[in-house]
Amino acid sequence: MSRAEKMILAGTAAIVLLILILDAIAPREPNWNTSFTRYKTDPYACGLTYDRLGDLFPQGVTTVREPIYSTAEQRLALDSAAPRVNHIFIDGSFSLDDLDLRHLLMMVEAGDDAFIAAEDFYGLIQDTLNFSTAYHWEQPDTTSMAREVKTFFTNDTDAVRFTVFPLRNDTASRFARGGFEESFNHFPVDSTQVLAENQRHDPVLGSARASFISAACPARSPITTC
Hints:
- By secondary structure, the protein is of the alpha/beta class.
- It has one domain.
- The strands form four sheets. It has a four-stranded parallel sheet with strand order 1-12-2-4, with helices on one face. Strands 8-7-10-11 form a four-stranded antiparallel sheet, with no helix packed on it.
- A hairpin with a 5-residue loop joins strand 10 and strand 11.
- Helix 3 packs parallel to helix 4.
- About 10% of the residues have low confidence.
């Protein structure tokens, strides 16, 4: 191999190495796919949420991979004076069969709390708790987006505001790329309190007796299925 060929080969290798380094350090667009896994920190993953649970629940967090009825058998066998816990479920859709739903409600009746976050709810849980959801989507303001891409826009960003004191005095939280097209459109008003609403004033978070309870209860340890 001649000296010129060696120089060309070394230069090519240097360019390839430089491209690889630049690709590794270049900012990347977030992954907007929904996964809800606790092992990633993407916008629709639960990595950051899971890491911060310890701030809300200093007594510790337990990840459970068993069916709900198995957890219920262990929880209900405990003495009534045993510390109560929060059961946290976060997923794209949420549906329980009769066995799991009955046992979840039994744990709530015994004093546990359940926090459920999902885009869609199916089956028995809607019928049993007497609620339903609706989907609302608006066309993004493409003109404004083309004019100033890096700015939050009303029609391309969802704003969520708490409705209960004292949190209702805080400014609304804004979420890029929307994400709050789903909302509750029917629920029993005599046993449900709306805790947060989106920019269209549709309820997106609620608290109800024996069903959806706020997870902000530091005195109790959570059981999470993230």
